[in-house]
Specification:
The complex is a heterodimer of chains A (251) and B (396).
Chain A (H helix, E strand, L loop, with lengths): L2 H6 E12 L2 E12 L3 E5 L6 H8 L7 E6 L2 E2 L4 H10 E4 L11 H11 L5 H14 L15 H13 L5 E5 L7 H16 L3 E5 L3 H7 L2 E6 L2 E6 L1 H6 L4 H11 L2
Parallel strand pairs in A: 3-8, 3-9, 6-7, 7-8
Antiparallel strand pairs in A: 1-2, 1-4, 4-5, 9-10
Chain B lengths: L14 H9 L3 H26 L5 H12 L7 H22 L1 H23 L4 H21 L3 H21 L17 H27 L4 H15 L3 H15 L8 H26 L3 H9 L4 H16 L1 H14 L11 H9 L8 H30 L5
The chains are: A alpha/beta (251), B mainly alpha (396).
Chain lengths: 251, 396
């Protein structure tokens, strides 16, 4: 492997294990993600896919193996973790906006307090991001006054405000009404095309087909199969992959 | 087809219709209304009769200053007025700066000032002029607040400085010639009651927040200390805490440091109330969803920033009613300081009754004390409601 490709590797997971009490959730995950790659992780519920991407910014701790993000290994060193978290944006299934702050305050909070960006500059950036996700007119509303789709778009803008090098999406559209899923996916597609490195847990197969470079099928704490969307959709090798795809694509 | 433009039905009801609908709708409703009216009439009639004929309201008039400031030296009375004038100025400033948010309070304060002025004038007391001055100051500062640059900041700083200023004005200092120190043993009456309430509440809330956070800490020493403290204090009556503060506090301090009894009582209140506020705040902390911590951490916020910017603002907002509940409890509990020999409003009331010329005026005096407590609590309740409205409790 040349140095060129090596420096492109932004997330490296080697033999990652995790247990919840005695339940073995992750059973030796090996995965390398390169810069600007869009990786879609899918699989049955309880397969450990959410736990896995939550390990990448250490919302969950892995108990064996190695995770290296942007050249920094995740250990118990709290300063390392905070640095990594600034480089890794995350979008949650349940949005998790701060309900006591307006949309724009949600976005400017971290740049101001963590990056020490001056107030005017961070407000300007926030407005740019709100325009990018299509809701500049909602800047001064509280999350409770926004629809689910708008909340999730504010959440994406909030994560982007830290100018992360990687974005993690944990089932970003699962809590949304059908007509709002599209507005969130449109933002994600635009983000993927702009060259952002993305790891997304989602069952939105349209999204995967449109922008994913690689799809990873998770089952029972293991990576069962991975490949390009074409390989996965048209020539799946593993029986479990075939069964799962037939279940979610049937209708 | 054009859409039908329907308005909601109007539900305006005249007073007569309201009375018929709510008081006389059925035969038993009518009977209840009449029965209750008769009961009210017969009980209030004798009370009204007593207050007009037998009652000796002179006891209030003669001892009003005593009720208000107790043994506080009369030649230093101007300091108390200054405290009131400063309050008027700050209320006016807040009104001018924040308009609607502070208008209710300002109007209430104006009304109270005017009412006191009127009462004093009717009774031929000089104090009416002081109350008019207070109202005038309020209005002047309302105007100033309208034009002042950085009005919001000035107002906040003013309020923050106000509470230490009260203490300085009332206590005086050896270093300021115009403000000779006043013995704390002279602090009494309503003045003492209010000072204990203010200091107790302002001191106990931060301590309570720290204890609540400590109780959730991952560090075992901090956690067990917090749990131990809260459970110990909650396990004993306030009276014992006051005794402890009065008797034991001096033992823990160097020999030459002898805090006055008033200070010891304040410490006792702070220590006691903090345990309850800690549990109130903990209730709020538990209401914060795990996703809030995760979102904050995912943005790279440190633990301290997450607590200060995300968790505490939401937790405190969720428990505003409980916090005010404790404020009010403490206000009324101040009457217990009588047992360690301090003269709060209620203790002063008892000493007034004991005056030979006013023997047998229990009813008048206690009714008066009751009205004062109740009046202040009405203001607290109103404050509670305003704070909830301003923070949108239960809405956002």
């Amino acid at each position: 492997m040349s140095d060129e490709t090596k420096s492109q590797e932004i997330i490296i997971c080697r033999d990652v294990h995790k247990w919840f009490d005695s339940f073995h959730v992750l059973k030796g995950i090996n995965l390398t993600v390169r810069k600007s790659e869009v990786v879609v992780v899918f699989g049955p519920s309880g397969s450990g896919k959410s736990t896995f991407i939550r390990c990448i910014n250490r919302l969950e701790e892995h108990q064996r193996g190695q995770i290296i993000v942007d050249g920094v290994e995740l250990t118990n060193d709290i300063r390392n973790i905070e640095t990594i978290r600034q480089e890794v944006g995350m979008v949650f299934q349940s949005f998790n906006l701060f309900p006591h702050l307006t949309a724009i305050q949600n976005i400017t909070l971290a740049p101001f307090w963590v990056r020490r960006t001056p107030r005017e500059q961070s407000s300007e950036l926030a407005m740019q991001l709100l325009t990018r996700v299509g809701i500049p007119e909602q800047a001064d509303k509280y999350p409770g006054q926004l629809s689910g789709g708008q909340q999730q778009r504010v959440a994406i803008a909030r994560a982007l405000a830290m100018q992360p090098r990687i974005m993690l999406f944990d089932e970003p559209t699962s809590a949304l009404d059908p007509e709002m899923i599209k507005e969130v996916l449109d933002v994600m597609v635009e983000l993927a095309r702009s060259g952002m490195t993305i790891v997304a847990v989602t069952h939105e197969m349209g999204f995967a087909r449109a922008v994913a470079n690689r799809m990873i099928f998770f089952d029972r704490g293991e990576i069962v199969e991975q490949g390009t969307p074409d390989q996965i959709f048209n020539h799946p090798q593993n029986d479990r992959t075939k069964l799962f795809l037939s279940q979610i694509l049937r209708h | 087809m054009a859409a039908i433009d329907l308005r909601p039905p109007r539900l305006t009801v005249g007073p007569l219709a309201w009375v018929r609908k709510n008081l006389f709708s059925t035969w038993y409703n009518t009977a209840l209304t009449l029965g209750v009216s008769w009961l009210l009439y017969s009980s209030l009639k004798s009370a009204a009769l007593w207050s007009q004929t037998e009652a000796r309201w002179g006891v209030i008039e003669a001892n009003l200053t005593l009720f208000m400031i107790g043994q506080y030296p009369r030649e230093e009375l101007w300091r108390i007025w200054l405290v009131i004038y400063l309050l008027a100025a700050l209320v006016g400033l807040a009104w001018g700066t924040w308009r609607n948010a502070a208008r209710g309070f300002a109007v209430m304060a104006l009304g109270a000032g005017a009412a006191f002025a009127l009462i004093c004038f009717a009774l031929n007391w000089e104090a009416w002029i002081n109350w008019l001055i207070a109202d005038a100051i309020l209005l002047i500062f309302f105007l100033i607040g309208n034009f002042l640059p950085y009005a919001s900041r000035v107002t906040v700083v003013g309020w923050l400085l106000y509470f230490p200023a009260i203490f300085l004005l009332v206590a005086g200092s050896r270093h300021i010639a115009a403000l000779p120190p006043v013995e704390m043993s002279a602090w009494s009456g309503l003045l003492l009651t209010l000072l204990l309430t203010i200091v107790g509440n302002l001191g106990s809330l931060p301590l309570g927040i720290l204890l609540a956070l400590g109780r959730q800490s991952k560090l075992p020493i901090v956690r067990y200390f917090s749990i131990g403290y809260i459970e110990l204090i909650r396990g004993v009556p306030l009276v014992t805490v006051l005794y402890m503060a009065d008797i034991l506090l001096p033992l823990f301090l160097p020999v030459d440091v002898r805090p006055d009894r008033v200070i010891r009582a304040m410490v006792g209140f702070i220590l006691f109330e903090a345990a309850y506020q800690a549990e109130n705040v903990r209730g709020g902390l538990q209401s914060i969803h795990r996703g809030q911590y995760e979102a904050a951490h995912a943005l790279g916020l440190s633990g301290a920033l997450t607590t200060a910017l995300i968790v505490l603002p939401q937790a405190l907002r969720a428990v505003v009613p409980a916090l005010f509940n404790s404020f009010i409890s403490l206000f009324k509990d101040t009457s217990l300081v009588a047992i360690i020999g301090l003269f709060d409003l209620l203790r002063i009331a008892r000493s007034v009754i004991a005056q030979p010329e006013w023997l047998g005026t229990h009813r008048e005096v206690y009714l008066f004390a009751f009205l004062i407590y109740w009046g202040f609590n009405l203001a607290f309740t109103y404050g509670n409601r305003r704070v909830e409205q301003a923070l949108g409790v239960g809405k956002r």
